[in-house]
Design a protein that fits this description.
The complex is a heterodimer.
Chain A lengths: L4 H9 L21 E4 L9 H5 L5 E6 L4 E6 L9 H5 L5 E4 L12 E6 L2 H11 L1
Antiparallel strand pairs in A: 1-4, 2-3, 3-5
Chain B lengths: L2 E6 L11 E7 L2 E8 L18 H7 L6 H16 L5 H29 L3 H22 L8 E2 L2 E2 L5 H20 L1 H6 L1 H7 L7 H6 L5 H4 L30 H24 L15 E10 L2 E10 L4 E7 L1 H12 L8 H6 L5 H5 L1
Antiparallel strand pairs in B: 1-2, 2-3, 4-5, 6-7, 7-8
The chains are: A alpha+beta, B alpha+beta.
C-alpha cells in the first residue's frame, strides 16, 4: 500500500513536466524534418525527386518554349521522409525543422523557375 | 441462463485501434469471444506493385507507427540478403540502437495504456512522461518522433555523432532511473496485483500450440526471442530473453517492464561497441529470388516474405505481424473472464490492429 505516495509527493513539489504550449514553444531539433523547401533558382528540373518520392507528391514539368520549369509539391501527400533532399543533385531541396502551419484549404506549393540546363551543357565542353 | 452478446469495440476507451469482439456472456462471465477484424485494412502489400523496392521502405514503415523502425529494418534485411549485400558493421550497430529505442518507447507506451486500462491514471502519466525522453531522442537523432525513417537498402541514412551518443546514454540512464522509481508501484501495488494477477492465464503448452509471439509467449515461460537469430548487431551483443512463468496479465506486464530496462543495457552495449566506418554501401541492381526474414518487434516476432523477379518492383510482399499471431491466444483465454476484466485482458497482448490488417 501507499507505493505511489513518494512519486506523487515528488511530482507535487517538482516543476511541471509539460509546457504552456501556445505561449511557450520548445526550440525545434535541427535535424527534424518539418517542412520541405525548394530553392527554385538552384533547381534544374531533373525530375529525380519526382521519381524517387515514395508518396509521389512532387510533379516537375518543363516548358521548353517558354524556357521555364514548374516544381509542384502537394504538402498534404508528402510524408516528410526527406528522400528527395538526399537525391537532389544541386541541393536545391532542403528540410526546415519547423512544422507547417495548419491550413483550411488544400493548397499546392507551386514554384516556377527558369530552365538552365541548355546553358550548362554548352558551357561544359568549352572548359574541356 | 440466457446468453447475451455484448459488442466490445471497434470504438472502446481502452482500445487505441478498432478491434471488434463479440462477447457471448452469461451474467457477467464471458463464455466466448468472436473476433471481427478488417476495419483498418489499407492494402499496403498491394502497393508493392506500383512502388519500387526502395520506395517500399517508406510504405512498410507506415504499416505500424510504434514499430516502424523494426518493420523497415526487417524489410531492408530481407532485400539485402536477397541481393547479397553485406552492410557495414557501424550500420548494424546503429540499427540496433534505434530499434532498441523503439522497443523502449513501445513498452513504455504499453505500460501506460495498461495502467490506464485498470484505471490507474497517474501511473499512466508517469510512464508516458518517461517515454517522452525516448521520443525526444528519436526526434533529435533521426529527424522524426515516431517514423524515424533511417533505414535504406545497404545501411542507414543517419549517423550518430559522439555527442549524440553520450546524450543518448545520459537520457536513457535517466529514463532507467525513473522507471525504477515506479517499479514498486507497477509490480507490487495492491490494486495493480488485484486487477492483473491470475487474469487471463495462458499455460506454456497453450501459448506454444496457439502460436503466441513476443511477450505473450515469454510470459508463459517459453524463452523465445527473435533477437537470438543474431540479426543486426545481436551477434556481438549478449542478452537473455526475459521470461516469466505465470502466463497471466501480470506476467505480461512484468516481461515488458523488464524488457524496457533490458533495452537500456543493449543500447549501452551497442553504443560502447560501435565501430567507426561507413554507414551504408551503394547498392546496384534489382532483387531477385525469395526470402523470409524475421525480427523481434516490441510486440513479438514479425515475419516478412518477399519475392523479387529481377525488376525494380517486388512480385510479392507478405507481412505477418505479432498481433496476428496473438489473436488466437486472446480468443483462447477469454472464456471464463469477468466482463470487467476484458479490457485488461485484451490490452495484455498489446493489440496493434493496423499492423495486423495492413
Amino acid at each position: 500500500m501507499l507505493k505511489m505516495t513518494p512519486t506523487v509527493l515528488k511530482n507535487l513539489f517538482s516543476k511541471s513536466s509539460t509546457r504552456m504550449y501556445p505561449f511557450e514553444v520548445r526550440e525545434p531539433f535541427p535535424l527534424y524534418r518539418g517542412e520541405l523547401f525548394n530553392d527554385i533558382d538552384k533547381c534544374i528540373f531533373c525530375k529525380k525527386c519526382e521519381i524517387k518520392c515514395p508518396s509521389q507528391c512532387i510533379t516537375v514539368s518543363k516548358d521548353k518554349e517558354a524556357g521555364t520549369g514548374t516544381w509542384i509539391c502537394d504538402p498534404f501527400a508528402c510524408v516528410y521522409c526527406s528522400i528527395c533532399v538526399d537525391v537532389c543533385p544541386t541541393k536545391s531541396l532542403s528540410m526546415a525543422p519547423n512544422h507547417r502551419k495548419p491550413s483550411a484549404t488544400r493548397d499546392m506549393i507551386e514554384q516556377v523557375g527558369k530552365l538552365k540546363v541548355p546553358k550548362k551543357k554548352k558551357a561544359a565542353p568549352k572548359k574541356d | 441462463m440466457a446468453r447475451t452478446i455484448i459488442p466490445f469495440g471497434p470504438q472502446h476507451p481502452v482500445l487505441p485501434e478498432p478491434l471488434h469482439l463479440k462477447l457471448v456472456c452469461e451474467d457477467e462471465i464471458v463464455k466466448e469471444a468472436i473476433p471481427a477484424l478488417g476495419y483498418v485494412h489499407r492494402g499496403l502489400e498491394k502497393l508493392a506493385e506500383i512502388r519500387d523496392f526502395n520506395q517500399m521502405i517508406q510504405v512498410v514503415e507506415r504499416v505500424c507507427g510504434i514499430c516502424s523502425m523494426l518493420h523497415s529494418q526487417c524489410y531492408c534485411q530481407g532485400i539485402e540478403e536477397m541481393m547479397g549485400v553485406e552492410i557495414p558493421e557501424r550500420a548494424k550497430y546503429l540499427r540496433t540502437v534505434w530499434s532498441e529505442l523503439h522497443r523502449m518507447h513501445s513498452h513504455l507506451l504499453w505500460l501506460g495504456l495498461f495502467a490506464d486500462a485498470f484505471g490507474f491514471e497517474s501511473l499512466f502519466m508517469q510512464f508516458w512522461r518517461i517515454r517522452e525522453r525516448i521520443m525526444d531522442l528519436n526526434e533529435a537523432t533521426a529527424g522524426s518522433r515516431v517514423i524515424v525513417s533511417v533505414n535504406v537498402v545497404g545501411g542507414v541514412r543517419q549517423d550518430l555523432t559522439p555527442e549524440q551518443c553520450s546524450w543518448i546514454l545520459t537520457e536513457v540512464a535517466q529514463a532507467g532511473k525513473e522507471i525504477k522509481a515506479i517499479q514498486s508501484t507497477m509490480l507490487s501495488d495492491y490494486t495493480v496485483c488485484k486487477r492483473t494477477k491470475g487474469v487471463a492465464a495462458l499455460t506454456k503448452e497453450q501459448a506454444y500450440e496457439l502460436g503466441a509471439a513476443g511477450p505473450t509467449l515469454r510470459a508463459s515461460g517459453v524463452a523465445q526471442d527473435m533477437r537470438q537469430l543474431k540479426y543486426a548487431a545481436f551477434d556481438k551483443i549478449d542478452f537473455e530473453p526475459v521470461v516469466e512463468y505465470d502466463g497471466d496479465c501480470y506476467a505480461r506486464g512484468v516481461v515488458r517492464f523488464r524488457e524496457a530496462l533490458q533495452s537500456i543495457d543493449i543500447i549501452r552495449a551497442a553504443i560502447s561497441g560501435m565501430p567507426q566506418g561507413d554507414i551504408s554501401v551503394p547498392v546496384k541492381g534489382n532483387p531477385e529470388g525469395e526470402i523470409i526474414t524475421r525480427v523481434e518487434q516490441p510486440r513479438g516476432e514479425c515475419m516478412y516474405y518477399m519475392k523479387g523477379n529481377g525488376t525494380k518492383f517486388l512480385e510479392r510482399v507478405r507481412i505477418r505481424t505479432p498481433t496476428f499471431a496473438n489473436v488466437p491466444p486472446l480468443i483462447a483465454f477469454m472464456p471464463g473472464l469477468e466482463l470487467a476484466d476484458v479490457p485488461v485482458a485484451v490490452l495484455s497482448i498489446d493489440p496493434c490492429i493496423s499492423c495486423t490488417e495492413r
